[in-house]
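User: Good morning. I'm curious how nicotinamide-adenine-dinucleotide would be positioned relative to this chain. Could you predict the structure with it bound?
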Amino acid sequence: LRSGVEQLGDMIANASVIVPFTGAGISTESGIPDFRSPNGLWTRNRPIPFDEFVARQDARDEAWRRRFAMQDTFAAARPGRGHRALAALYKAGKVPAVITQNIDNLHQTSGIVANDVVELHGNTTYARCIGCGKRHELDWVRHWFERTGYAPHCTSCDEPVKTATISFGQAMPTGEMRRASELAQHCDLFLAIGSSLVVWPAAGFPILAKESGAKLVIINNEPTDQDEIADLVIRYDIGETLGPFVGN
Ligand code: NAD
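Assistant: Good morning! Here's the predicted structure, ligand included:
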């Protein structure tokens, strides 16, 4: 019986267009907790929905307090073996772009050009005004927060400033959704890596890829709802699985 990693190696070698789709599990090796594991972020904190963030100053203050409590973790994080393996496939011309649910910027840090990282849930390494969309840097937000004790409002339009992430109840980014759909429909191998595949609409992309004729591989240390439609399920650690593709 050939191992899952050997089968994955053959599938990668035989594919011409590979689209990876990543979730929080690819970044746990980098020290960023995922959402749903026992020491995941939500096991500790109920997420703040978008309408609460918009409506209440105390919710915004709490959201920024939590974000700054995570700052050292995000700032120290370096790409893991999973990120590096995908970056190598990208440089080899096999991966046109990566679709990610992650907000940690680690695919970009690993060497994938920002335009080729399709961020379905945004990015937590900078902020945006929820009114006019103006970009604000986290250092500025932090300075304001420490000086006033409150979450900031935009210097251009006075609307609240939020991390550039997509919260529950917030509209999905239309350009990214379109690009992810196109990628899922035009690949011959789709790799779902480190996602519990329960957050929608993101979880629809592996299904779309499979329905469009791609082979589907799921790499995750826990079962997912989509295991039964996958061509190969590797229920194992991501770094251990993808590390051999970059020589470690
Ligand atoms: P999730 O937490 O729901 O699922 C992560 C999955 O990865 C789990 O099934 C877990 O068992 C598995 N996993 C964790 N470490 C692993 C490892 N080393 N090897 C193999 N499997 C491993 O995350 P999700 O599906 O991405 O969805 C939740 C939401 O979480 C997303 O919307 C995303 O925006 C957000 N999020 C992002 C980050 C990040 O940017 N790094 C971190 C936490 C949450």
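The chain has two domains: 1-30+79-121+172-248, 33-76+122-165. The longest helix spans residues 57-69.
Let me know if you'd like a different ligand tried.
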